[in-house]
Amino acid sequence: MSFPPVPTGSPDVEVARVALLSVHTSPLAQPGTGDGGGLNVYVRETATRLAARGVHVDVFTRWADPDLPATVPLADGVDVHHIEAGPRRPLDKQEVANQLCGFVLALQRHPTAGSHDLLHAHYWLSGWVGRRVSERWGAPLVQTFHTLGVLKNATLAPGDVPEPPLRLVAEQRVAHDADRLLVLTCGEARLLHRHYGISGRNLTVVPAGVDLSRFVPRPSVPPSGRAPQLLFVGRLQPLKGPDVAIRTLAEVRHHVPDAELTIIGGVSGNGRHAMGPPELTALATELGVADAVHLEPAVDQAELVGRYHRADVVLVPSRSETFGLVALEAQACGVPVVAAAVPGLEAVVGTGGTLVAGHDPADHAAAVVHYLEDREAAEAASRAGIETGRRSSWDRTVDRLLAVYGEVARPRRAVAV
User: Fold this and answer.
1) What element of type H or E holds 361?
2) Tell me, what DSSP letter sits at residue 205?
3) Strand, helix or coil at 296?
4) pLDDT at 126 over 90
């Protein structure tokens, strides 16, 4: 299949007001815990930068915290609106699916309803809402899935459960009905084309970015003479592979006996009862590395950058990944990455790290040991990763978003006139 050129330059139509739908998780939530992750970062970073370009952004998310008001200003020109749909408490994504009709009805009554040039839905739950609201508001729908059920089911991790048929059907319908699908990588585009028959004309690759004002290169490679530090950042669920990270450490310690691993993240996902701190601690004990594994809760990005700077290698052993944001952040900081060779990571990790076929801990450990024992290789990967980060700013992401928004809004406006 072929794709149209990536939009660049000024949009054909100036877009003044955009609705971002993030039904199941809020940009105010802490990434790395619950259902918070790269999607939250994407929505927050793009919303604030769109507003800086003069676009007013309304973010609509389910009201899951009773202590928050109905509307929270995220930045100048960005308002996060909490929509009443089910109880005001966190719900599992499967439970959120049961509240979508209520979300649509409440959204229809919102004071801003129908005032937007377009809707941009994030994840399939938001797409389900956007598909219904788009027609009623007379506004085009742009969709970013972030993850796809067909991909997760094809690469199911031990201890995880398949995505439900409802999700697969909803994704297919949203994919066909959206005015434009934005994908994070060419691999995701090929997946949508292969499984759902989506034309390349309706797909645009808009990668995520990295905050280059925050994730800056570390001053120097960590000095020798201290215990080598491995780092895993992500939600504690089978999909992300924290168990692989622990098994990798056990293999690494056969060659580098004082190596340590820090795991930063909170429990989430369908396999939440199979990959939490108790299970990971038990695995580390079984492998004889409990003294070298440190489990810590998720931290905000201001603190996370310091964790990257202290690491010798960042592990990203995901079973599947639509876009490896952690791998990109680590490279921007100049930290070598050892990642699984899955499509979303293949698009992000270049010579700033090593892609490992499969999830055999011995193979991942060999790549880690190479960086720990060969300082020149680590420094070369650090330089390459920094360059990868420089080419991946959020401002470039927003340039592409604005161009797509202008293309998509133009036909609808022409009809309205």
Assistant:
1) helix 361-373
2) E
3) strand
4) yes
- Domain span(s) for CATH 3.40.50.2000 in the chain: 17-209+393-416, 229-390
* Amino acid at position 210, single letter: V
Three-class SS of 60-79: EEECCCCCCCCEEEEECCEE
**Whole-prediction pTM value?**
0.89
DSSP 104-142: HHHHHTSTTTT--SEEEEEHHHHHHHHHHHHHHHT--EE
Q: Select the highest-mean-pLDDT range: 34-43, 147-156, 159-168, 395-404.
A: 395-404
Q: What is the DSSP string of 149-203?
A: HHHHHHTPPTT--PPPHHHHHHHHHHHHHSSEEEESSHHHHHHHHHHH---GGGE
Give the C-alpha separation, 24 to 33, whole Å. 13
- Beta partners for residue 58, in sequence order: 19, 79
pLDDT digits over 233-249, tens only?
Answer: 998 988 899 999 999 99
pLDDT in the model for residue 322: 84
Which residues are 71's β-sheet partners?
A: 81
Q: How much is the pLDDT for 225?
A: 73
Cα angle vertex 65, ends 75, 241, to 5°?
85
Domain 229-390: give its CATH code.
3.40.50.2000
Contact, 280 vs 236, CB < 8 A? yes
* CA distance between the termini of the chain: 35
Domain 17-209+393-416 superfamily per CATH = Glycogen Phosphorylase B; (3.40.50.2000)
User: String of b and e for 89-122 (b: at least 16 CB within 10 Å)?
Assistant: eebebeebbebbeebbebbeebeebeebbbbbbb
User: Which residue type does 320 have?
Assistant: S
Average of pLDDT values for 110-128?
96
For the cut 50, the answer to whether the pLDDT of residue 89 exceeds it is yes
Q: Give the number of C-alpha atoms closer than 13 A to the C-alpha of residue 87, restricted to the C-beta side.
A: 5
Could you read off the pLDDT of 38-56 as tens digits, one per residue?
Answer: 899 999 999 999 999 999 9
**What token pair was written down for 24?**
């199941």
Mean pLDDT within 298-316: 94
Residue 79 contacts residue 72 (beta carbons within 8 Å): yes
